[in-house]
Each structure stands twice: as C-alpha cells, then as structure tokens.
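[INFO] parsing input record for Xanthine phosphoribosyltransferase
[DEBUG] input buffer:
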Amino acid sequence: MKLLEERILKDGTVLGKDVLKVDNFLNHQIDPVLMQELGNAFADYFADRNITKILTVETSGIAPAVFAGLALGVPVVFARKHKSLTLTDNLYCASVYSFTKNTTNEIAISKNFLSSEDHVLLIDDFLANGQAATGLIDICQQAEASIAGIGIVIEKSFQRGRQELEAQGFDILSLARIRAFENGIVQFVEEEGS
Ligand code: G4P
Ligand code: NA
Ligand code: NA
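[DEBUG] output buffer:
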C-alpha cells in the first residue's frame, strides 16, 4: 500500500539490524486517518469471506483492527496480555514467545466472545516471527472458530513469520512488506503489478 510505504519512509526509523520504529503513527502516537485507510484496505480484501469477528492482540493491533471492524461491520476482540480484574476465568489462553525480548507472555480471550460460530480475521501491527499470530490461531482452535485470513500492517519479510503461516495454508494480506533494511533505509518487497 503506497500510502503506508510513504509514511514508513517519511516517519519510520530503523533501529539496529532488524527493528523499525514507527512510534509517531502506529505504536505510540496514532494517526486515525491513516488507521482508517488501513482498516478499509483490510476490509476490501476480505470483504467476501463472511467474516463474523476480528481478533487482535493489545496494544498496537487494536487501532487498525477497529477500523477494519468498522468497515466490515463486525465486532473486534483483543487478546489481553495482562491479568484483568474483571476477566479472571472462562478464558482461552495461549503462550506467546517473543524472540525480540526472549520472554513468554500469556494472552487470553474470554470464552464469551469467541465461539465455533465465528469466522475470524486476525489483525496485527507487525509480523516478524509470527508468534503473536500463532497464539491467536491457537485460541481460535480452542474455540473451534474458523480463520478467514490474517491482516498485517507491517511485515518484515526477512523474518520467518509469513513463511510459517503460509505453510499452514493461511491467506495473509500485509499492507507493507519490508524486504530488508539497507544502511538504515527501508527496502520494500516489489509487488507484481504495483
Ligand atoms: P512476532 O509476534 O512476529 O514473533 O514478534 P516478536 O516476538 O518478534 O515481537 C514482539 C513485539 O514486538 C510485538 O509487539 C511485535 O508486534 C513487535 N515488533 C516486532 N518487530 C517489530 C519492529 O520491527 N518494530 C516494531 N515497532 N515492533 C515490532 P508487542 O510487544 O505485542 O507490542 P504492542 O502491540 O503492545 O505495541
Ligand atoms: Na507492537
Ligand atoms: Na503487536
């Protein structure tokens, strides 16, 4: 998506070897106009898939997921990473390992908000190693919900996430695909026909 690529080139900073900082429109300050465009792009691509619900993980997946939900007319559920006062049992849980931080976190969704009737679109801000998506897939399987596809804002194509999820047969739409960071400059995957 041209608009997103331009924004990444304008406002993104490459940190070290493999991290992109996008704090001024996605991960800290949020640009609602851009988020709505991203949400609409997910909704257009997955429009005919009979999606009943969008699933994401707090925190940074929520903004694009909400705009996709608005456009598709379906509710959005975010998996929680932290223990909640009011959400204590009746949960689907999965462990998410972070290669970046070398930590494992539990994510949880209330059984009230996901069922075997649901056909789910998974959305997240970044796809790196695919651990967050794998946790959401695990939770969908526990609920016997089916998965329509995966929408990602920024994919780092040089990490293993896409490959592993595609190998499991998932349809992935990534709005920006980063091939590499070369001398601190973001290089995008050249898409056919674009
Ligand atoms: P994975 O799910 O693809 O395996 O990701 P990984 O463990 O490598 O990353 C852990 C966290 O870092 C996730 O966010 C993920 O979205 C984010 N992340 C991964 N690569 C990048 C990057 O290049 N830039 C930025 N800005 N984030 C990246 P999180 O901890 O769940 O954060 P949040 O959603 O609460 O903001
Ligand atoms: Na993040
Ligand atoms: Na995230």
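[INFO] The mean pLDDT is 95.
[INFO] shutting down worker
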